Here is the input.
Amino acid sequence: MKEKQGTINTEKRGMDERRLIERIAELERRLKEVEAENIVLRELAYQSEQRYEQIKQLMKENDELRRQLQQLPQLEATGDVDKEERPDSWFFHTLRQENAIAPRPERSNKK
Here is the structure.
């Protein structure tokens, strides 16, 4: 009887060890998956941070351009800006030359 009990205990321990080994292997596999996911998430976070910085810079540039555009009519009215010195003069001149945009009405009256 004791022998039988010892054999049962040995078999139980063997099954427990196999389950533990399987559980450890499963946990190690899951750990590798989580580590790989972590690497991907870190890269995405880095890219997101870079894009955020780009957006901040573009917003600053946009604000500066808006400010310049707001000042442009005031400078034109006072005559402080030479037509050739305007930052957009070449661009708009080319568009007008190609008839891509119609001239502004106030300019048509001057001519």
